[in-house]
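One such shown below:

_____
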Amino acid sequence: MFLLALLACAPVGNGKAALAFDGPPDCATIDNPGDAPTSFTLEMWLRGDPDAGPQLRPLAIWSGLFELAEREDGVLSFAVGEDGAAATYAFSLFDGVVHHVAGTYDGADGSVRLFVDGKLAGANQAFPGEADDRVQVGCAKAATEAWYGVIDEIRLSSTVRYTGDFTRPDSAFEDDNDTMMLFHLDEGEGESAASASGNAEMFITDAGWVEFNAFSGSGE
């Protein structure tokens, strides 16, 4: 984790980049994300630090709508609603390997699905509550909660993009009519990042920039 912190402090040159989180108070926030969609897909690339200790590891939270996190017991969870049921994956992603993770919610039937590297990992049924006015990425709610690792290529869509196994993406996401927010996170410096869809901005607190290519296999 110390090496991650050193890398995060260094400016990143042109090319692929991502955000590195090394515990509290590292956080990225998207204010006023817009109206909550009735159906949606949240997806991102990540690489968890295998040296991180057991604790709640928040990835992305839109309070009232969804929460994607790895629990203290090492189970990846995608929950919909304030106290909604979660689709889960019973293996830790804190293995130093680059993973693509996607969570979907279908408002037509309340189905929640979680995919890891293109494979359906779990399913459940839930219903969302009233959505908050911000989305948090990698943000800890308490000192015992934190994300340690790299997050890249975050896309939130107003549709269900996956219903079964699919081929893991091998290139950057593209903006389309169903894209609500898309952060390539290739800025490589600064305290904010812009959505490629042009309608949102991410504000970064303490999290740093690292060179990272999600599609290389190792992230380097």
User: Anything to note?
Assistant: The longest strand covers residues 148-157. The longest helix spans residues 2-9.
